[in-house]
Amino acid sequence: MLDKTKPRIGLQLAVLPILLTFIVLGIQLFVFDTFTPHVPLIMGIGIAALVGRWNGTSWKDMEEGMLHVVSVGLPAIGILILVGMLTGVWIASGTVPTLIYFGLELISPQLFLAAAALMCAVVSVSLGTSWGTVGTVGLALMGIGAGFDIPVYWTAGAVVSGAFFGDKVSPLSDTTNLAPAVTGVDLFDHIRNLVPTTLPAMLIAVVIYLVAGFSLVGDESASLARIASINTGLTDQFMLSWWTVLPVALVIGLAVMRMPAMPVLFTGVLLGGLAALVFQGESIKNLFVYAFSGYEIATGVTEIDGLLNRGGIQSMTWVITLLLIALSFGGILESTGSMRAILDAVVKRIRNFGSLQTSAIGSSMVTNVVAGDPYLSIALTGRMFGPAYRGMGYSMLNLSRATEEGGTLVSPLVPWNAGGAVVITSLGLGVYSGSPIDLLYIPLAFACWLSPLIGILYAWTGWFSPLASDEEKRLWKAQGEEVMKFDSWGDESVRFNRDIYRVN
């Protein structure tokens, strides 16, 4: 399963750079009391490079490995840049303030968390990007939650649940397209196979948010006074009407027409700029500033200033640099054979389909944590586990679902992962500025971690775990896919056989 043209690496040596990197990350977080994983990850790259050279991997191969994985992540960087521009311009246009205003007026405080999760789910399915949803509608919902005096981590948990649920099942999402592409299954078959795990997880999450909403909203009169203060400040600073929501409606319409994410987001920037010129009287010069540096306002209302002073390309530089470093770390681990050696060791211990599916989900999760990138977690796991699924005679739809559950949905729960960094930055959580309590959004993003657990339950019970059809097996043969031999499988006596053959 390893590339025979490159030096093999032992498991202990493969784990060493990962272990040492996590020790440095722990020192940075628990000893120095600061969460900036950039330098520890760079040190991890250096450690991995030393291990690679010791094992016989050339620097050229490691450099090419890093550049290759970084190039895979470039579209994500493009989306981050556009999300930063969109946030700054949509605040200036009055779009985000209008969403906050009408949200405070129309949504019941008790129903807010459930409504926030559902709203983000609908928008994310339409846009095909969780990051874009978090940076626009998610930001507005954070403002509404602040008006209802709901803790920010509860609102963030609901936003993340909805946004990444929508990303997982949207045919426009890059990760939703990547998983079936890596595993060789049809896109819409893949989406249909996601429903048995994703939908129950989201329904459970919504029920929890409903119960939490009634328990979290306290003194009604205090909430009403807070809402009145925020809405007065918004109406004093912006011209608010349903017209200023037009950029959101048009962007969702373009996404429904299946336009690619980046052109849709860029169109949103242009529409937001036009709305700022027409409705808010902004100058073109100011719009360029907002798109690059972010929006700035001083209303005297703390909640408004804290929410609306954000956006711009510069606001995403922290995330972009982290993503580049994390991708490089993942790339050098892949080029030295470390990631594949670890996954190969996992595959050896498979005993039945339950352990196979659990291992695939877990490996995708671990890659998310180690490499900091959902794309690598999907691609690497999908490539590595394919022969085992074919050897057991199970449909590759099981593997494509496993990579999404451990990749797409776990990404926002890892603070140094690209997804987690986007959530923390876009929603204005104070994790990087001394408020680690905001990390409570992680356990409160119920839909994101319930879905993998439901998937593991199905694997061990055999529910919603399809065997390969005759047509799928014929396709494996036509494409000469690799298949792993097992001496036996389906019970505890199964023994792993390292032989791999191609279907012919």
UniProtKB/TrEMBL annotation:
GO terms assigned for molecular function: antiporter activity
Membrane topology: Multi-pass membrane protein
Residue ranges occupied by any Na+/H+ antiporter NhaC-like C-terminal domain in the UniProt entry: 162-463
Keywords: Antiport, Cell membrane, Membrane, Transmembrane, Transmembrane helix, Transport
Subcellular compartments: Cell membrane
Transmembrane portions of the chain: 12-32, 38-55, 67-91, 111-134, 199-218, 238-257, 264-281, 287-308, 315-333, 413-432, 439-460
Pfam families per record: Na_H_antiporter (PF03553)
Record-linked InterPro entries: Na/H_antiport_NhaC, Na/H_Antiport_NhaC-like_C, NhaC_Na-H+_Antiporter
GO cellular component: plasma membrane
PANTHER family to which the protein is assigned, alphabetical: MALATE-2H(+)/NA(+)-LACTATE ANTIPORTER, MALATE-2H(+)_NA(+)-LACTATE ANTIPORTER
Family: Belongs to the NhaC Na(+)/H(+) (TC 2.A.35) antiporter family.
UniProt-recorded name of the protein: Transporter, NhaC family (TC 2.A.35)
